[in-house]
Amino acid sequence: MFMRLDLSCSGCRQLRLLDRAYQCTLTAGSLDEACGQLLCYSCSRAHSIITSHPCFRVVGLDSRIMAGVIDCPYRYGANLTPANYMKHTRSCNLRGLMCPMAMCRQKPFFWNTLASHLIDHHGFFNENIPYEGYKEDIPLIRCGTGVVLEGQEEYFVFFITETGLYFIWLGDAEAKHDLPSFLLKVHLYQAGSDGRPREELGHYLSPHPTRIMDVIHLCVIPSVANINITQQSFYLRVLIEDRA
Ligand SMILES: [Zn+2]
Ligand SMILES: [Zn+2]
Ligand SMILES: [Zn+2]
Ligand SMILES: [Zn+2]
Fold it and tell me: Ligand 2 centre and the CA of 85: distance in Å?
């Protein structure tokens, strides 16, 4: 019934035509196989710069794309609509993920195997999240490590680098269909000389757009004079609430 769409760009082979398709105007008498083919924006720009061929956006394709279905890049037969394609590819439970820790960069992991890799291999703390009220004094010892807060078949990962505090949601979005987004409030504290939370360094207070698996930058760690950030200990205060 639906038209199954191939939205890969003829230049880079990435599924980028969903976000506007372009075509070189030289469709005959060309020596370049990209001429006359559908290209993504960046490939069409590169093509125009190299060949001086003008490229135009293929406006007539938009309505055809909106009426069709697209396959999940990780599993055949998913029948995604263009409207939910982008969200699905970032939250698909079959998406291969690379370990985000510097000097590791192992891959591929899936949402559940990445969480256990961070705990077992990188020494991340592992605690449960109650989904109501603040969870206080979560230890986040040193840069290059972090904490995995375990929810119901999902993980909320926080880690610190020399420049900032980062967050990743890991989970099976298909099993969480009815819970598209959540409220995320995070406060980052520096530990005092007694090892207890002392000064607030930064915070992030915002609804998280959706349950997608991307690295999100939460806040910058201010540079403190005479303090080597790699020698510091940190604590988090975290509130996670589902938005109905
Ligand atoms: Zn391209
Ligand atoms: Zn051309
Ligand atoms: Zn999928
Ligand atoms: Zn790793």
Answer: 29
